[in-house]
Prior knowledge:
Blueprint: E1 3-5, E2 12-14, E3 18-19, H1 34-45, E4 49-51, H2 60-68, E5 77-82, E6 84-87, E7 90-94, H3 98-112, E8 119-122, H4 131-143, E9 150-153, H5 157-163, E10 169-175, H6 187-194, E11 197-201, H7 234-251, H8 256-266, E12 271-272, H9 279-286, H10 295-305, H11 315-318
Parallel strand pairs: 3-4, 4-5, 5-8, 8-9, 9-10, 10-11, 11-12
Antiparallel strand pairs: 1-2, 6-7
Helix pairs in contact: 1-2, 1-9, 2-3, 3-4
Amino acid sequence: MEQINLGKSDIRVSRMGFGCWGLSGAYGSIAAGEAERLLQAVADTGINFLDTADVYGGGANEELLGRALAGRRQEVVLATKFGYVGDEMGGLRIDGRPEYVVAACEASLRRLRTDYLDLYYLHRVDKTVPITETVGAMQRLKDQGKIRAIGLSEAGIATLQKAGRTGRIDVLQSEYSLATPDLQDRVLPFLEEQGITLAAFSPLGRGMLTALASGLQPGSDDYRRLIPRFQEPYLSHNIRIAEQMQDMAQQLGTSLAILSLGWILASGNHIPIPGTRKLDHLRENCRALELRLSPDIVQQLASLARQFRGARHNPANAAFYDVD
Ligand SMILES: NC(=O)c1ccc[n+]([C@@H]2O[C@H](COP(=O)([O-])OP(=O)(O)OC[C@H]3O[C@@H](n4cnc5c(N)ncnc54)[C@H](OP(=O)(O)O)[C@@H]3O)[C@@H](O)[C@H]2O)c1
């Protein structure tokens, strides 16, 4: 599989990554043993860039990776995040204090059964701590060899600029998809200019571009029930937009999942990190790497993308976004 460098680092990652959150219950349950099998299958495809966070499943997602990847550590580029404290389904706060950075890193290393992290992200900016202090602490971890690269998640341009004073930021992880194209106008040109890689999270719109286009509603154990765009009055409108995209996919002889990932790949050196609990979906998503889209199709899709409505997050979580 084609590989590229993460930012200005020498870390080589596959052109598409894998988001592990869904393997710990974000989008409903998964059968025992299935997640481990899926992670083995991911590594077998040549995808080497795995994304987790300490808050996913309250640490269970990192433990899962630690178990599943025992013996394969050198084959993968492990990215994890810190900063969220509390319950991921509600009641969260952010901690970016330097002493917390050190403690969180030690805990992630233990759960992941490794002595270094390839990429360590601040999950959300702590607005009560200067970003230079948080990133300064991350840089010290890098100097000690505990992490190889520094990333921020959902940070705005001004924060990225300030952060760069105490540590080089190689990756920004933010939501970017045909359902959420907001980064296109200002952030993507900035990243390109600075040599920062975008890891595009929720590249399938958290399923908005796949399952919900065929009429599914989030279940009671599904995180999406908390998100306004998955609720009325927005949901019906958004499904209609997704259906138009699905028609385009059909005309191109592909699926909307493949088209969505192909659109991200076509719009720059970005790395989509889709998640799935199913082997056939994993294989399908990999086919996006072979898709070639004309500039005209890329543009038509971008126009449709701007028509999605409704906040992409519940108000409590939206308060953590760092927009500038
Ligand atoms: N930094 C952050 O704050 C942040 C926030 C959210 C996510 N993330 C990261 O980004 C990763 C991916 O995002 P995500 O999981 O939220 O959303 P996503 O990848 O956009 O969508 C996942 C959903 O799409 C479905 N899906 C995947 N492939 C499919 C296919 N080929 N056909 C039909 N349905 C398909 C999955 O269902 P099935 O399981 O049924 O396939 C799941 O419901 C996460 O795992 C996490 O690592 C980071």
